[in-house]
Design goal:
This protein is an alpha/beta fold. The protein has eleven helices and eleven strands. 40% of the residues lie in helices and 17% in strands. Helix 4 links the parallel strand 8 and strand 9. It starts with a strand and ends with a helix.
Length: 286
Amino acid sequence: MVLETFTLGGCLPVRRLGYGTAQLTGPGYWGPRGERADSVAVLRRAVDRGVTLIDTADNYGPGIAEELVAEALHPYRDELVVATKGGVVRTGDSAWHIEGRPERLREMCEASLRRLRTDRIDLYQLHRLDPRVPMAEQLGALDELRAAGKIRHVGLDSVTAEQLTQALTLTSSIVSVQNRFNLLDRESAAVLKVCEAHDLAFLPWFPLANGALTGEAAAALDSVADRLGASRGQIALAWLLHHSPVLLPTPGTGSLAHLEENLDSAALRLDASDISLLDALADRAA
């Protein structure tokens, strides 16, 4: 049986298939994408379809994605969990600067609170660990924000299993990890095991393999997709939901039609032969 929900931090139940906002911004997650009203419509439709986890970040735009979330969804429904990220500063469409000094993390969190029009962020994720700043100082800043009521839970983005294990010895605030993981790329399998052992949510970024599903390595998807009357992308999302109960994919799109397709994948049920075939795809892709 595929579980439909996951409880973040033991207190925030969310539907396992969420929605990510990166695709509501322009190329390189920089600037706007299309008409603002279209992005608002996609966000509202996602929630109307039952999505209860919205994943965004302060540097998508920058600032644009968070503002769109507030415009579309504020005042937020009681069951809606909004996750955002801080710790990376953008100065251009291909310029990303890691910034983990405690004073900067506090400033970034305050800015996100203003853009999201909220007093407390449900899940605040450190977008990258800053190698120039001791991990204890970065996590300590987030713990201080939590103690002040600014954030409810803490997440980490793009960490190794060793870093995650170390972080768990420094704070009890961590409830999630966001690493790259999908049907064709399972480099973070060791991180997933740590998440399973500690009941942490794993939000895989690039859950649809960032376009790689159209390649020859993913051709084996077609037999499963044809049998179930689904697309390759839907099968890839269904595989994530079957693969581990702590995986919470948040595929993003700026298209209403693509949104509907993504969300419909939650209803797909893979049998043992499907899973066996799909499990072998990562080796073929490599």
